[in-house]
Amino acid sequence: MSRLIKHEQFFKSPVSGLFIPTQSYGAELLTNGDFSNGLNGWTKLNDNGTTATITETAADGGAGTGAATYSNSSSAVSLAIEQDVMTAGDWYEIAGEMTAYTGGRLDITYSGSGVALPALQSVRAVRQLDRASNTKFRPQTGGALPRLFTVDNFSIKKLTMNAELTAPSADMDVRLLYTLPASPRAGDRVFLPARISSFSSGNYWLVMLEYSGSQWNVFLYSVASHTRTQQKTVSNVGSTNGLRFVASGTTIRMYTTADSGANWTQRDTDLTSSTYQTATGYNAFAGSPFTLGALSGVAA
């Protein structure tokens, strides 16, 4: 469902709490993430030297240096490299690239528990903002045999986000403006957490914009103990420059705008839920290619 409403028709009180999010990214945490120094700095797992190997190659998988080629010809072991560089519970921007592909799949996980980046099964680059569930960054093989592909340009940078804000009431109307990246990668995301009960405990509502690699999709989740439950999804919303979360009592809605808030389109239908009904916290953060604009919270 898409419902277009004018800015003036929806607000019940003047805009308040206008804020420009001040997130920042730290230095590169990986050692030799571009493989310019071979595999130095990486620990190899399950490389048996014959049927399961990771070797330094050129970016196209041929002769030369500066990339890493995975090859599982007949052994289905989970071939991987890893570095222990993260802190469980912190947020990071993580990126990687598959530069040559024959078969199989690369899963980029945190210590083997939960896929952090979209699985790579073709020549493309991915970049995603997410919470680390463990300390180890582990790109590992999956999928059908034989598995043969080349990877390059891994990166991990820690996100420091702005302090949590407080809406005028639990019945909140929260909106975030932004500029989309000119060259998005699969996994690029904007997060708009709202009705935050405890962000550190992972209890809040979330509107999320994500690039699939070919289109922008928007999601509404309820989050409990850092586990998302998908509530609403709308695919291929086109170019947007704003997200909005509206909660009034047990009624919850999500919106997007393409004209900086002059008009808002409701995405999918109303949701009825009393989860975190009295919480008033809200925030926003996004991948580094986005430019964040105003974040505001008003009484709904």
Average residue pLDDT: 90
What is the CATH class name of the largest domain? Answer: Mainly Beta
Helical amount among residues, as a percent range? Answer: under 10%
Which range does the strand content fall in?
A: over 45%
Q: What structural category characterises the helix and strand content?
A: mainly beta
* Poorly predicted spans: 4-16, 111-115
The CATH architecture of the largest domain would be: Sandwich
Number of folding domains? 2
Number of strands: 24
Give a brief rundown of this model:
With 300 residues, the chain is mainly β. The chain contains 1 helix and 24 strands.
Per-chain topology:
Elements: E1 2-6, H1 7-10, E2 24-28, E3 43-45, E4 52-57, E5 67-72, E6 80-84, E7 91-103, E8 105-110, E9 124-131, E10 136-142, E11 147-160, E12 165-166, E13 172-179, E14 189-198, E15 203-211, E16 216-224, E17 227-234, E18 242-248, E19 251-257, E20 263-267, E21 271-272, E22 281-282, E23 285-286, E24 291-299
Antiparallel strand pairs: 1-20, 2-11, 3-6, 4-5, 5-11, 6-10, 7-9, 7-11, 8-10, 12-22, 13-18, 13-24, 14-15, 14-23, 15-16, 16-17, 18-19, 19-20, 19-21
